[in-house]
UniProtKB/TrEMBL annotation:
Record-annotated membrane-spanning stretches: none
Pfam families from the UniProt entry: POLO_box
Entries under CDD domains matching the protein: POLO_box_2 (cd13117)
Source domain of life: Eukaryota
InterPro entries: POLO_box_2, POLO_box_dom, POLO_box_dom_sf
Domain POLO box, first and last residues per copy: 7-87
UniProt-recorded name of the protein: POLO box domain-containing protein
Signal peptide positions (record): none
PROSITE patterns: POLO_BOX (PS50078)
Length: 96
């Protein structure tokens, strides 16, 4: 049995990172400092890789309560970018 091909549905760049939204509903964010955040909505998990390549897995509903301040800052930033990415575009001449 063949697996469906996973592809990038959307991508977005900021001054500090590039965010990929994949067809399997994963969101991967690669930061300039070589850290990485992967959010899996289906399993409600988040994976954080620090600059040393060490990975940590958090339940999505508890990730914001982590004592890893650097990770929580990046998660907040990711959330804001995702909101703007998923926000429906208005086509009423207002430019929003």
């Amino acid at each position: 049995m063949t697996q469906p091909l996973i592809y990038v549905k959307n991508w977005f760049t900021t001054d500090h990172a590039i965010l990929f939204r994949l067809s399997n509903n994963l969101v991967q964010v690669n930061f300039q400092d070589k850290t990485e955040l992967i959010v899996c909505c289906k399993s409600m998990l988040m994976i954080y890789m620090n600059e040393l390549g060490e990975r940590s897995v958090y339940p999505l509903n508890a990730a914001m309560d982590s004592e890893n301040n650097e990770m929580t800052k990046k998660l907040i930033c990711t959330k804001e970018v995702l909101r703007s990415m998923l926000k429906p575009k208005r086509n009423d001449g207002t430019g929003e």
